[in-house]
Amino acid sequence: MGDDRGQEELGKSLVRAMIAAAKADGRIDADEKEAIFAKLEAMSLSAEEKAWVFDELSSPLDINAVAAGADTPERATEIYAASMVAITADTASERAYLEALASKLRLAPALVAEIHKAAGEQAP
Q1: Minimal CA–CA distance to 82: which of 71, 67, 93, 92?
Q2: Got the DSSP string for 29-42?
Q3: What is the pLDDT along the chain (124 residues), one digit of tens a residue?
Q4: Which of 1, 9, 18, 111 is the most exposed place for a label (fewest CB within 10 A)?
Q5: How far apart are alpha carbons 90 and 93 in whole angstroms?
Q6: Is 122 helix (H, G, I), strand (E, B) or coil?
């Protein structure tokens, strides 16, 4: 049972990371929403959890809440990767957000570059 709880928390952390990244440029565009909803479809969410997602979508960007989900280096990596794939980092604010997130997650620059390479994206 404990592992399910951990998976649910990780899922929430990843969704929160995706939503926050999408908000980095001040708006969530259609592609970003689609990526977020595709992730949600893959998770079996209760009505309460879906309500939580909509609260996240409408709440202000909180990078500290995103980083708080990273209780292990592996989770930090997953949170960063989820954030990165949620957006096309094509604005200065999105790139700055990813840089700030990498810093808050204490990810080494080499690891950040590796995550971007694995996803076929340019590092910020």
Answers
A1: 67
A2: -HHHHHHHHHHHHH
A3: 456 777 778 888 999 999 999 999 988 888 888 888 888 888 888 888 888 888 988 999 999 999 999 999 999 999 999 999 888 888 899 999 999 999 999 999 999 999 999 887 666 6
A4: 1
A5: 9
A6: coil
